[in-house]
C-alpha cells in the first residue's frame, strides 16, 4: 500500500531540471512502493512451498522495527526545527493520541490485513484491489465528510470494479482455494486506509506532513508491537522470531526500499511537479507489480488478466485526473 510521504526541501537548479527530477522521483517512488507485495511474497516463500517461514504479523513487526527509528529521528528533527521557527504544536496530549490512533488505522490495521491477504492471493491481484482505495475515499467522504459523488466518479468506479470482477471470475492471477477471503481482506484494508486519509487531512494542515507522518507511524508501531507481544505471550516463547536469516534481510529491504526511500521520493516529487502529475505517474505501480510478479515470483498473467488490469487502470486513472483537477 502507499505510505504518506515526508517533505524534503527542493535543491537549487533550473525549473526544467526540477521538473525532470520530479518525474524521475515520482516514477521511482511508485515502483518502489509497488515492490512491497513482491518482497512480502518472497519472504513468505523462503524455504520452499509450504514452508511457512514467516507470518503476517511477524513480517509487519520486522518492517516497523527497521523503519520506526528513521521516522522517530525525522520527527525529532522536525519538531526542533518547527520550535526554532516559532511555530508551536498543539498543546496537550489529545491531538497526539488521536493522530497515533489514526496511524493505527492506516499503518497497523490496513497493513496487517494486506500482509495477511498476501498469504492467500497473488501479488498482482492484491495490488489491483488495493489500487482502488480512492473510490472508498470518495464514497466515505460523501457520506461523512461533506464530499460529493460525481457521475464521472461513479463511471470510473464501475470501470475499475468491472476489471476486478472480470479477473476474479476469469483471470489466471485470481487463483487458489481462499481467493475470496484474500480479496475480502484487501478490500477491508483499502477501506481502512481510506478512513485514515480522510481523518488525516485536518491534522496535516495543522501540524505539517513530516511531524504527522512520524506520529502516525509511531502510533502504528505501538499497535503492531503490542499485537506481536500478545502473540509471543500466547506462544509462550519467541518462536515467531525463529525465521530464516533471509527473512530479516527481506524485512530490511521492505522497510528501506518500499517504505522509507519512496516516502522521501514522492514528497520531493510533489514539491516539483504537483499532485496531478504524481498521481498520474503513480498509475504505473500496478504495471510494475505485474512485471515483478511475473519475473521474480513466477506468477501467471494471461490475456484476461491484461483486460481486467486495463479496466482497473482506466477507471482509477480517470478518477485520479478528475480529482486532481478539482
Portion of residues within helices: over 70%
What is the string of SSEs from the N terminus onward? HHHHHHHHHHHH
Radius of gyration, in Å, reads: 20 Å
Number of helices: 12
Distance between the termini: 24 Å
Mass-distribution shape: globular
Question: How many beta-strand elements?
Answer: 0
Number of domains: 1
- Main sheet properties: none
Task: Look at the structure and give the mean pLDDT.
Answer: 85
Structural class by SSE content: mainly alpha
Low-confidence stretches: 1-13
- What share of the residues does DSSP label as strand, in percent? under 5%
Walkthrough of the structure:
With 326 residues, the protein is an all-alpha fold. The protein has helices spanning 15-34, 36-44, 56-84, 94-117, 123-130, 133-144, 151-170, 179-207, 209-235, 245-281, 284-297, 303-325. Helix 4 packs across helix 9 (209-235) and helix 6 (133-144) crosses helix 8.
How do the strands and helices of this protein lay out in sequence?
Layout: H1 15-34, H2 36-44, H3 56-84, H4 94-117, H5 123-130, H6 133-144, H7 151-170, H8 179-207, H9 209-235, H10 245-281, H11 284-297, H12 303-325
Helix pairs in contact: 1-10, 1-11, 2-10, 2-11, 3-4, 3-9, 3-10, 4-8, 4-9, 5-8, 5-11, 6-8, 7-12, 8-9, 10-12
Amino acid at each position: 500500500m502507499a505510505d504518506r510521504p515526508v517533505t524534503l526541501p527542493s535543491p537549487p537548479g533550473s525549473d526544467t531540471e526540477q521538473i525532470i527530477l520530479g518525474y524521475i522521483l515520482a516514477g521511482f517512488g511508485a515502483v518502489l512502493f509497488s515492490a512491497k507485495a513482491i518482497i512480502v511474497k518472497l519472504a513468505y516463500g523462503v524455504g520452499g512451498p509450504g514452508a511457512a517461514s514467516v507470518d503476517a504479523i511477524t513480517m509487519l513487526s520486522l518492517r516497523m522495527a527497521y523503519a520506526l527509528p528513521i521516522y522517530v529521528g525525522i520527527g525529532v528533527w522536525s519538531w526542533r526545527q518547527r520550535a526554532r521557527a516559532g511555530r508551536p504544536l498543539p498543546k496537550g496530549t489529545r491531538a497526539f493520541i488521536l493522530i497515533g490512533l489514526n496511524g493505527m488505522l492506516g499503518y497497523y490495521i490496513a497493513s496487517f490485513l494486506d500482509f495477511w491477504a498476501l498469504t492467500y492471493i497473488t501479488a498482482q491481484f492484491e495490488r489491483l484491489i488495493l489500487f482502488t482505495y480512492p473510490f472508498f475515499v470518495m464514497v466515505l467522504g460523501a457520506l461523512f465528510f461533506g464530499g460529493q459523488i460525481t457521475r464521472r466518479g461513479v463511471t470510473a468506479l464501475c470501470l475499475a470494479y468491472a476489471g476486478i470482477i472480470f479477473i476474479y471470475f476469469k483471470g489466471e492471477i485470481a487463483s487458489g482455494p481462499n481467493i475470496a477471503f484474500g480479496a475480502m481482506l484487501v478490500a477491508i484494508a483499502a477501506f481502512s486506509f481510506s478512513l485514515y486519509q480522510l481523518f488525516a487531512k485536518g491534522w496535516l494542515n495543522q501540524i505539517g506532513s513530516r511531524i504527522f507522518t512520524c506520529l502516525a507511524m509511531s502510533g502504528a508501531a505501538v499497535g503492531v508491537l503490542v499485537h506481536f507481544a500478545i502473540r509471543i505471550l500466547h506462544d509462550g516463547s519467541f518462536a515467531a522470531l525463529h525465521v530464516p536469516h533471509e527473512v530479516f534481510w527481506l524485512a530490511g529491504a521492505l522497510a528501506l526500499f518500499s517504505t522509507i526511500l519512496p516516502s522521501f521520493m514522492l514528497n520531493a516529487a510533489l514539491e516539483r511537479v504537483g499532485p496531478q502529475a504524481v498521481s498520474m505517474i503513480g498509475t504505473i505501480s500496478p504495471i510494475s507489480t505485474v512485471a515483478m510478479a511475473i519475473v521474480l515470483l513466477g506468477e501467471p498473467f494471461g490475456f484476461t488478466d491484461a483486460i481486467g488490469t486495463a479496466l482497473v487502470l482506466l477507471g482509477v486513472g480517470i478518477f485520479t485526473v478528475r480529482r486532481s483537477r478539482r
